[in-house]
Structure formats: structure tokens, C-alpha cells
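2024-03-11 09:14:02 DEBUG pipeline.ingest accepted 1 chain
2024-03-11 09:14:02 DEBUG pipeline.ingest length=602
2024-03-11 09:14:03 DEBUG pipeline.predict start
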Amino acid sequence: MADSQTPSLSIDLKEAYDIINQSNLVIFKWTLSEDIPTDFVSDSISIFGYEPVDFYTGELKDYWEFVYPEDRERVKAELNHARVHGKSNYRNQYRVICKNGEIRWVEEWVLHERSKDGKLIHEKGIVRDITESVIVSEKLKESESRYKELFENASALIFTFEASGIITSYNHFFADLLSLPYNRKGLIIEDYLSKDTKNILNGKSFYDYCMAQIEARIEVQFVDDEGREIYVELNNRIIFHQGKMGELQSVGNDVSDKKLAEARIRYLTEHDTLTGLNNRLYFDEKLIELEKNDQKNVGIIMGDVNGLKMVNDAFGHKTGDLMLVAIAQILKEIFTSPTDTISRLSGDEFAIITHERNIPFMIDQIQLACQKLTQFPFVVDISLGYSIRKKVAQSLDSVFREADHLMYRNKLRRSKRIKLGMIDALKTQLEVKSIETARHSQRMGKIAQIFGSYIELNDAVLEELLLAVSVHDIGMVSVDKRIIEKKGNLSTAEYKEVMKHSEIGYHLLIATPSLAGVGEDVLSHHENFDGSGYPQGLKAQEIPFVSRIIAIIDAYETLTGTKSYRQAISSDAALEELLRYKGTKYDPQILDEFVACIKNSF
């Protein structure tokens, strides 16, 4: 059909026709019948594997057989719509079936020739193979869809913004991080920057700040809609539009936990965890800093808490810690200047760096505030000393050593008095905890006075005996009141707790030089003559002489005095009980003398 018509075409048209036959364009002219037989098709139909005759008389004389079945109804509907509405041309895309069964995409451009009255005369057009571009488009759509999914659901925050600061897109991570609804329009990035970050910008826009650091990782502090501060590390890249710089894309991670951990480590490095004051490391670094700055009139105050070990031994470390916290609070309330540095240097030692001139007055304030602490069953006291750097030539280390020396000199004057006062406080505390225990010691004291005179102890030994008896149970202050007052037998665990009292009493007493001598007596007053006692298992003459006396007096008074857990027995019965353990629990010679004394004195 094509061969019979081409000779009638002009040379120009023939050349154009030859060009078309060499391309992926196919020219069609259709009839207007329902099955749309083809009036003309160019030889280039061969790109789909057919010849023009296939459309004239062959299997495709019904053009719709060329169209892929799933697209036929849609294409028919669009064609009818164009006919009915008088369109002169329209474009369409659909799939066709090749001779070899392959399915390919085509784009159809149809022209409608109409008479003057608008009646359709001819339909003709060009069909172009667009399979490759459709494949590319589908891959692009798939790629875009995949990118969008990655963008929206990435486990990192991603957002883009313009030079104006307007956020043009952001993902779910960003929305969740800043407590924002997804896809809110018109957000300005500067509205979500913290005050500290804005100070770092120093008047620059966030866009310019990021542009200046494209190759660097930057740290930014955001503030969400609820006022929560969030630390983020960002990497930025430029997005180009048609070769020109457009938006910036920021990709980052929430590093708030990391920052908190770093801050915590830094805090622990520089602070004492118990009191919250600065520690020794920070104090030393502060001295170095002040030394470099050549600052004069720097004052250093040194303080040492009196009796901390006694408090820990008697009342436990928890009470000792509470005392240190109370002293630290006093120091913080008195030294309030931003230039003051308060540090806890060690267990019981504090130091203050200050520019305050009236340091003696402030030391008096510290002592007065300590005396007003009423939550402890003893007087809280701290020895203090200070020194001031009057010349830049004087090293701060020498100022520190002078303040430390004066503090220790002051401590020597105060410590003995404070510790004796604490022993009295502990005896009072024991009396409050158990009146029975206090009365037991008082009755023992009377018996000790009589027995000491009876065996003609010299004044020094008698004084040691009476003092040891008065404090022999001082360690009981650390034993639970429920155990002390328990009726009936103690459990193994409870008995072990009570057994600790001699060691605790020893540690309390040796902390005071004037009482250190009786510390050994108190430690050993539960040792047995045959070595079966506690806490060291001493025997015979290894046990201090005074301790051997106390053991007998203690047992006799316990048997003859009324206790919460049993009735008292007679003096004779008590002595008979003691004699049963002669040479095992008790020194036989001292026991014989004690029995004789009691029988002759009462």
C-alpha cells in the first residue's frame, strides 16, 4: 500500500518519509469505523516487528489488537472523549504488543481533521517508541521513592534550609527530636537554636555559619517546642539548583547523651561527689591559674574537721558523711563570691581560696554556724588557719603551706578538748539509747573503787581502772538499740554485732591522746584467761591487768543487777558462778581477791 502511494509524493516529502522510516516514529492514518482499521501506516512499523500489510488486511486490521489488553479500554475512552469534545489533537501513552510478543511503551500524538461544521473527517498521527524513557522514568521514580523513604525514616536527623533560614524539608527524626508535627511549613531554623548557639553565631545567620564550615563537623544546641535543650553534631552540604547554589542540607545525630556523659565525667573530675564542692585536682589547678595571673591579695583558708574518725566509728560513716555535707553547706553559704573556690581536699580537710579581706570574721562565722548544728548528738567543730598573699613574688604554694601550718597548730589546741567533749557526748548518747547500760557502768565504777582500794592499787592504776570502767561499753553506742534492749537470747548475727563494741570503743578512745591508754583496756575486757575470748584471743598475762579486773567486775555486776532479759541473783550465787570459770574466763588470783573483797565489804 505504501509502495503504491509514495511515487505520488513530492521529493521533499519522500525525503522526510525516508527519515521517519529510519527513526522510532511511525505515521498512522486511521478510518473512523468502530474497529479502526488502518488507512495508512509507515514502513517504520517494522520497529515493532510488523509490516504495513499486517494492519491493512492481516491480524491487526483491528487496530485495538495492537494495543496491550490492559490499556485498551482506557485508550478507547480517551479517544472517544477527544472525538466528542471536538479536540483537534491530543497525546496519549500506552503499551503495544510486538510481533515477537514483547510489550513496549508508545506515545501517540493524534490530529483530528474536521469539516467547517466540526464534523470529524480523518484521524492521523505519530506513534513513537518511548520504552527506554519509560524504563528510565520508572527507575527514577523508584530511586526517588527509595530516597524519600530513606530521607523520611533515616535514623539521623536530616533537614534542608534556605539562606533566609526557612526550613524547606525535614525528616521524621528531626520532627521527633524537636517535638514537631511532620511537614509543618514555614519553620525558621533560627527559632530552634539555643541562646548559647546564637551567641556562637555572633550575629551571623545560621546559613552563613554553616556555609563557612562545609567541610567541618559542627556542634549545635537546639531547643524544642517544649524548651528542652538538645545537642546535635551536623555535617552540611550544598544543594545546587541548575548549577547555582541553593539550599543547604544538614545531616546529624543527637549527641545529648554523649554531652551529658562528658559533663558528668568533667564534673566528677573536678568535684567531690559527697559534698558537691571542688576537689583537690581542681584546687591545685586553680592555684596554678592564679599563680600565672600574678594575682596578689589571694587568701587561702585551711580547715580540718575535728573528730571525724570518732564519729565514723561511733555512729557510722553515714553520720560522718552527713556532718561533712553540713559543713560544706556552711562554707557555701558564707563564701558566695563568684571568685571564691571551696574545695574538699581529703576526708576531713577543706580549703577555700578567696579575695575576702576580713577572713578572721568569716572564720568566726564558720565556727558559730558549726556550733548551731543541732541535728548531731555531739558538737561539730573544725580547726581553721589562713594566710594571705601580700606580694606577687610570694608563691601561692608557700601561702598554702603557711595556712596549713596555722590550721594544724590551731588543731592541736582544740582537738583534745573537742574529742573529750565528744566522748562525753557519746556517753550521754549511750545513756539515751540504753539507761540500763549507763547504770551498769555506774555500778561497776562503785565496785571498782572498792576493789581497787581493797587490793591497794596505786593512784595511777586506780585512776586508769575507774576511767576504763566508765567507758568500757562506749562502743555500744554503735549497736542497734533493738539489739541492746532485746529480751531473750541474741541470734548469732546479733551477738556478732554486739561483739564489735570493744573494737569500736578502742578506736574511739585512741583517737584522744589522753584516753589512748585505756583504749587497750577497753579492747581486751572480753578476753578470757584461757585464750577463748575476743577480739584477739589473748590469754593469761597477755591480757592487760586492768582488762582482767574489768572482766570480773563486769560479770559480777551483770549477774547481781536486774536486767531487761533476766532477774538479778544474790551476791553469793554470783560469786559461785564466777568461781566456776576460775582459770578459764577469769584470772584465778584476781578472782580470789575479788571474792574475798566482796565477802568482806558487803
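2024-03-11 09:14:41 DEBUG pipeline.report Residues 4-9 have pLDDT under 50 and may be disordered.
2024-03-11 09:14:41 DEBUG pipeline.predict end
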